Amino acid sequence: MPNGHGSIEIMNWLNSKNILTPSKYKANKGRISKEWNQTTILAILKNQVYIGHTVQNKINKISYKSKKMIKVPKEKWIAVENTHKPIIDKELFDKVQLMIKGKDTAKLTKHDYLFKGLLKCHHCKRNLQIVLKSSGKKKVKNPYINCIGHQKRGGHPISMNYLKFEDSILENLNKICNVYMNDQMFSKIYKKYKSKTIDIIEAYQKQLRNMEDRITEINSNIDNIYFDKLKKIITKEDYMRYSNQFLEERKGIKEKIEEIKQKIYIMKNKEEETIDEIEIKNLVKEFLGLNEINKTIIYRFIQKIEIDTNKNVYIYFNFNSLNIISENIDEMIEFEKILKTG
Fold first, then answer.
1. Contact between 90 and 111 (Cβ < 8 Å)
2. What is the pTM assigned to this prediction?
3. What is the pLDDT of residues 109-135, one digit of tens each?
4. d(CA 319, CA 269)
5. Residues ≥6 apart with Cβ < 8 Å to 176
6. Nearest Cα to 319, choosing from 19, 44, 91, 63?
7. 59-61 and 54-56 as β-strands: parallel, antiparallel, unpaired?
8. What is the model's pLDDT at position 136?
9. Cα-based distances in Å from 321 to 88, 107, 191, 205
10. Chain mean position to CA 339
């Protein structure tokens, strides 16, 4: 079967070929069955077992006295990675999840929106909702982006006209894609990003050295007050009080060290990550060539979009190269004007 088909097309193809469903194959080998459905197809496409992971705690008993089972919320599932040999490449699996996510948010509803499902509150990180609100003298209903329930949570109010937001984001995506396709502009921005990253890593490493020096000093102080206790220069109570203070400080510093090491690790990984530039270029070309933008390509581009109470918008792409451009887009547009004017 050719690539690029949806779950319903896959279902129809499997049924037309008289291919057994997993349950029928296991129970009745050799019998022909046409019972493939969309739910089964999507369950297989989303199943992490095919990339070598094991997911448990999906269902649980109501109590030990009852045999009745209930579904466990996804955030409480227990996933253990690399438990067995994968049969599907994780990169391909992740691409499929993005496409499914795009399809899931494009169900036939009265009002459907291009960026629905990607919008997050910058403050509470919850999904933002798109609701219809009446505005103007004619009471025309327009879609607005809102953080529903922020009053109860003591959060921040967000209200933004969705149609204006969508036009602005699409315009911004076009700018980012055009910058990416301009080798001279992208080279300039990447050099600046790399230099900035090196400076940040060096600053973190300097912090690490200072904190490690402080831990050495604390250890020495603990040794000194211990000998002072043995010599009865200080009381046992004073020794315990000073010692606990030093131990608490050392514990806090060690936690901070681990936090900074994790930040350095993430930054170095971003610096060294290997990205399929051909894939990104093909995606960018596809986007720029579309007469009508669809959800599937949007979800292939974007991981999430956060909005804050001041209507600032933060786009998080699935590709680091595009994130770098997004963070410096205004400067790059100005650079392009300079190039054109000579």
1. no
2. 0.53
3. 455 788 988 999 988 888 899 988 876
4. 13
5. 322, 325, 326, 329
6. 91
7. unpaired
8. 63
9. 26, 31, 12, 25
10. 35
